[in-house]
Design a protein that fits this description.
α6 (225-256) packs across α7 (277-296). The chain is an alpha+beta fold and 297 residues long. Among the domains are: 21-114 and 229-296, Beta Barrel (Upper collar protein gp10 (connector protein) fold); 145-184. Strands 3-2-7 form a three-stranded antiparallel sheet. Strands 4-5-6 form a three-stranded antiparallel sheet, with no helix packed on it. The chain has helices at residues 2-28, 42-52, 116-138, 153-164, 192-210, 225-256, 277-296; strands at residues 31-32, 54-60, 65-69, 71-73, 85-89, 95-99, 103-107, 146-147, 182-183, 268-269. A hairpin with a 5-residue loop joins β5 and β6 (95-99).
Length: 297
């Protein structure tokens, strides 16, 4: 019984880790940074932004390049709560104190908090739904709690073994009275389909949080513009909350460290979908014009 409980707990935890990995993979890889200095590890940059909420860019004289590392505040804050002096640190023990004019801070979102905390919540909820579906499906099997007489126990086990073997015809002894075999545990009602719908809603909420569009906008669906705007509004707002602080930091980096950069750094989403309602309207107008041209032809 203890072994079964341990196996169940391990399965729950493994399912949670599975969803956590998937959520982190998406949340960390929705941005790309063309012309980023080669010495900067983009994967480390995205991971630090997600877990710490911020990362500091600065010029390292010995390496003659720009670095991006996590930091801690070691001085007072300005009137907006921004650090005046920081200490950056690397995985290899590297440390350096930087003054206000020596660094640029990039935040993950306008709230300046680590999105990691929200991702943990969504991963736990998704894992709960997945395990509930697994358990509910398992409970749809033949009930395993039966009441039988001791003298017919072995015959009953043989009969159940044949059932588990998917045999179409089962032979047993004449002395066995099937009316004496009683089921004490009824199978649970099937709710996996409803839980799956709830899981999809939670997944869509998570995609909205990190700014990934979860609506397939195709002209054959004939979605009206107002309906698409309403569906995409939350996604665009979340996307802007993460994109805008990155863009602001990139602009400052390009200006402050221009002489150390071969080309100006850029930031953009991988999917190329609209970032604002204005861009969405322009895309819809182009799509409508294409429909009219096809209808005429």
């Amino acid at each position: 019984m203890k072994k079964q409980l341990i196996d169940s707990q391990l399965s729950n935890y493994q399912t949670y880790l599975m969803w956590l990995r998937q959520c982190l993979t998406l949340a960390e890889n929705v941005f790309e940074f063309p012309e980023m200095p080669k010495y900067i590890d983009i994967a480390f940059l995205n991971s630090c932004l997600l877990r710490k909420g911020a990362i500091a860019f600065f010029y390292e004289e010995e390496l003659n390049t720009i670095l991006a590392l996590p930091f801690v505040n070691i001085s007072t804050l300005d009137v907006y709560g921004r650090p005046r002096k920081i200490e950056v640190h690397g995985k290899n023990g590297y440390r350096r104190v930087l003054e206000r004019d020596e660094f640029v801070i990039m935040y993950d979102n306008n709230g300046r908090y680590p999105l990691w905390l929200d991702i943990l919540q969504y991963s736990e909820r998704l894992a709960l739904c997945s395990r509930t579906i697994d358990i509910n499906l398992s409970q749809q099997k033949t009930p395993r709690v039966w009441k039988v007489k001791e003298e017919t126990l072995q015959s009953f086990k043989d009969m159940m073994s044949n059932i588990d073997g998917f045999q179409e015809a089962i032979a047993t002894y004449e002395e066995i009275n099937l009316d004496d075999i009683n089921c004490l545990l009824e199978p649970a009602p099937f709710v996996a389909d409803k839980v799956q719908e709830q899981k999809e809603k939670i997944w869509n909420e998570f995609l909205r949080l990190i700014g990934i569009s979860n609506l397939s906008v195709q002209k054959k669906e004939r979605n009206i513009k107002d309906e698409i705007q309403a569906m995409q509004g939350g996604t665009i707002a979340s996307r802007y909350a993460r994109f805008e602080p990155r863009q602001r930091a990139i602009d400052e980096i390009n200006q402050k460290f221009a002489k150390y950069l071969e080309k100006p750094i850029e930031v953009r989403y991988y999917d190329g979908l609209p970032n604002t309602i204005k861009e969405l309207n322009e895309e819809l107008e182009i799509s409508n014009e294409s429909e009219v041209e096809e209808d005429v032809s």
